[in-house]
Amino acid sequence: MIPREILKKIRQIELRTNRLVTETLGGQYHSVFKGQGMNFEEVREYQPGDDVRFIDWNVTARMHHPFIKKYVEERELTLMLVVDLSGSGLFGSGEQSKRELAAEIASVLAFSAIRNNDKVGLILFTDEVERYFPPKKGRRHVLRVIREILFYEPKRNGTGLNHALEFLNRVTPHRAIVAVISDFLGENVHVDSTARRRPGAAGGARQVMGAGVISALRQTHRRHDVVAVHVADRYELVLPPLGRLVLKDAETGEVLEINTSDSRHRTAFQRRQAESQAELLRLFRSARIDSIQLRTNEPYGAALAKFFETRQKRMFHG
Questions:
Q1: Which end of the chain is more exposed for a tag (fewer CB within 10 A), N or C?
Q2: Long-range contacts for 208-212 (Cβ within 8 Å, ≥24 apart)?
Q3: Reported pTM
């Protein structure tokens, strides 16, 4: 039997995210992803009001007047949630950890999907694939997905997105929407609240995942519609002035010390992190992968709405 506090947590997320789906996102999910499941049916003469993007220019040139390709939309799509459960996801400087934020975002996307009668699948990964739930429909299935993201205890701490993407491509033969929810960190250092303070200072830089991972994302994007959902905490980007701290890498266990009272250290840290974030965005753009940037201390509804709006505009305006 599932403990009452777990059921309560899942129910809270369901209520909160369902409200967002109903009041804000509406049918945007379906409108921006519906082009993924289109089957070619025939070529016919262009009629006023037809979408000019579907003009068949080869036939038009031969016949000397416009023809369009007619497609029939598949009845259902598949949304695959690929969620990072590495050790760095447990960090959160406020009320919400990155893993809890990942669960809420997954919930929003999953409830949007089942509202459109689509299937939802889940891959949980660390430096290996930890759990896999094949795509299914229905509220009960989505609630199980949320529960696993929140409460599954991974066997390992590291990060291996490449393995998750390879597994995804093996088990998902048909084109799907793939939401990769991760902090995209290869090396992560965060404050260990249990560590004792010591004298001395040391610097260190967190690094975003390298070009190898982006290459794997690019390869997956050729087969599926990949969206990178990047979750981060504010104190991973800007150090607070809290004096001498011991910082611990949640994935490797490496420990370092830093004097956060020194403005030079904070400035250098902030600069390195800004450069890393800019590089990650550049890599996403180079791979033509849409991305959503989320923070644990900021409401995510506006960021999701902006993503859907931007993508919708690009679809209709090329």
A1: N
A2: 208/184, 208/276, 208/277, 208/279, 208/280, 208/283, 209/159, 209/161, 209/184, 209/185, 209/280, 210/186, 211/283, 212/162
A3: 0.81
